[in-house]
TrEMBL record:
InterPro entries: TBL, TBL_C. It comes from Ilex paraguariensis. This is Trichome birefringence-like C-terminal domain-containing protein. Residues 3-93 form the Trichome birefringence-like C-terminal domain. The lineage of its organism: Eukaryota, Viridiplantae, Streptophyta, Embryophyta, Tracheophyta. Residues 1-25 are annotated as: Disordered. Belongs to the PC-esterase family. TBL subfamily.
Amino acid sequence: MDEWNESKSTTCKGQTQPLSGSVYPGGSMAAVAVVKEILRNMSIPVKLLDVTTLSQLRKDGHSSIYGFGGNEGNDCSHWCLAGVPDTWNQLLYGVLVAGNRSKI
């Protein structure tokens, strides 16, 4: 698997640094394109705060074996705090604050 630009990396175990750059080496996901197309064609406008690429590049953000249970396998679907979820919250807060300012 060449997901994180490392041919030997099959899980997030031992990963401690985010990727450099702004392109996810695993390629784009078809589901993301589908969601964007659906939102673009909706009759009622919807805003999407797209954190997909930001999140994919944070290989160090997964809880992996460092959570409860210790060495019982890797958990690459949940995120460590503080980290990626905090970044999502900061971005959302910025969008909300900027949105309120434009309505004043």
